[in-house]
Each structure stands twice: as structure tokens, then as C-alpha cells.
Amino acid sequence: MAPLIVTSLVLLASIHSSNAVPTSHRRATTASSIPDYALTYAPHVYISGTEQWFPSDIATHVEHVSMEYDYVNVSTSVTLETLTTYNSSIYMTSVDNVEDDPEWLLATYGKPDADTGYSAAPGTIIAVQKTVDGEEVVDVFYFFFYSYNHGTKVLGTMIDNHVGDWEHAMQAKIRFSNGEPQNVYLSAHTSGAAYAYSAMTLEGVRPVTYSAVGTHANYATSGSHSIYSILGNLVTDTTSAGYYWDITQNYRGYWFDDSTSTFTSVGGVGIGASEEVGEGVDWLSWLGFWGDEEYPRSDSRQDCVLDLDELCHYESGPTGPLGKNLGRSTPCESNDDCDIKTSL
């Protein structure tokens, strides 16, 4: 069970090289803001009413971690501005015992207002310029970050707990053609599902997605969802229409140029906008891990079902947005076998 991080929702926008959107919105090199259509069609997310681990601010998260390599501390001080001074083998490691449920992991400050959808935890919106089959394309990714992923129970043991959750399975992706939405991709755990936009439940023009309790994986419907088909219904996620979350009310905004692998800060809204000013964009290029390294079997907190690494109580934290295939050519994170469903 590889973790996902950047809890993310991805809006994939594919625009023909017509005048469907302003040139400044089609060119990452000259863009000065997130495209209007990215906000107009941003997914409406529902967090389970029984959720206990809420959306988190990455700036708060880094205040409570040290940097470790092979379980050895290499630094007790890290900020978003200094992230790229560490290599990709480094793990952000909680300075607190995660089993004590420290407040920053629960992140109750990020609980969305059930009426307005506002969360004090900023999301991250990344628009990506690329060309697919000769057509100009803009993919808009909505990343939702949680400081903790609380897994699922298998044979009496909770598995897949980990610090840091960039659920790019918190990703919903909408592809646009000539300014009209065509399809939506929702990532969940190590995979996901693509749908025709017309198949999605809509609130206004915005597709509805559900965040699974604890794991924060994205689904198009509420209810119970089997995570691994090989295990039948042994491992499931549960979703419900609890707390409504509107990422457009608080986010950091960026453009990513896939041809040069460079990020540009273009401002956001709310707390995300104010924090973004002094942070720069280098943190987005860091390919290290946003949580603890999987605890060894010698750690009393660790327990692995059937002694399988894939079914351990604690897994390693995930990588960030750059590790989520921002340059993909299909709506799916994996470009292979991307089946677009026409019904829920």
C-alpha cells in the first residue's frame, strides 16, 4: 500500500488552441493567476461526518517535524524555504509520538465550515501547460494535504497509517475541450478512476467528490468502497456527505511548465495567498517524503498482518505534488489503461 500524499484533487483542463480562454491562461510562462475556469469547475469535496484527521496547512506541518535519513536525525529545523537543501532520501519525521494524537496531526483547525465550505487549511492548485497529441492542454490539479492518514482495518489490525497525506488520490481532474469539461479523474490510494464529466453528480457546474474517512481517498459516490479487488471487501473505504469543503476559498496557486519542470507562483486566496508570498516555489520540487519512514518491525508500534510489508500498521509517508505525474498525457495518473467511465 504505497501512500499517496499531497492529498490532492486534480482538475485537468485541456483547451484547444482556440480562443476558449485568454492567452495568459494558456501560457504558463506568462500566466499571472489561476485560470478562471479552474475555479468555476473546481470540485465540491465532502469530508466524512465521522472524520477525525482534518485538512492541514503544510506550513504548520513542517513546524512539527525533524528530518531523518535511515532513522537518524539530520536536522531539527526545516521550513518550506529550505526543503530543497535536503535530498530525496530524507523523511519528514514527527517530533511527537503519533500514537499520542498531537493536535497538529488531528488538525481540527482545518475542519471545514459545514455551511460555507471554508477551511483554514489552504489547498494547493497547480495549473500545468502541456501539448498532448498536438493539442494545447492545461491540467489543473487540486491538492489537499492532511498531516495524518489513518488507515483501514484488516483482520483486527489497522494498516496503512502514515504521517503526511498529499492524497493525490485527493485528486479530481477535469479535462476541458474548447472551454467545456470533458472528464474527471479521482485518485484513490495507488490508483483511481476516470469519468465522463456528464456522468458526475454536479452542484451547479462543479462535480461532487467524497473524501474517505481517515484515508482521504477520493470517490465519486458516498458509501463503502473496496480498496483492493484481490481482497474483495476485506479492505474498504467509507465516504459520506459530512463537511462540505470548497478549496477555492483558501489556496496557494501555481503554474507548472512541464517542458522545463519549473514552477511559478501566481498567488492564491485567503491564508494560502498570504503564506505563499514568502515561501517561494522550490518546495514543490522536493522529492523527499512528507512523513515518517515506515517503522521497523522492532518498533513496538509496528504490526504487519500476515507479516506482509504491504499490510503494516505504519507505512512510510508520501512524496509531494511533483511525484504525481503532473506531465501525464491521459486523464489518469498512470497513462496506461485509462478507462473513462460513462456512469457512476
UniProtKB/TrEMBL annotation:
Source taxon at top rank: Eukaryota
Pfam families according to UniProt: Vps62
Transmembrane segments: none
Keyword Chloroplast among record annotations: no
Keywords annotated in UniProt: Signal
Position of the signal peptide: 1-20
PANTHER family cross-referenced by the UniProt entry: PTHR48220, VACUOLAR PROTEIN SORTING-ASSOCIATED PROTEIN 62-RELATED
Name of the protein in question: Vacuolar protein sorting-associated protein TDA6
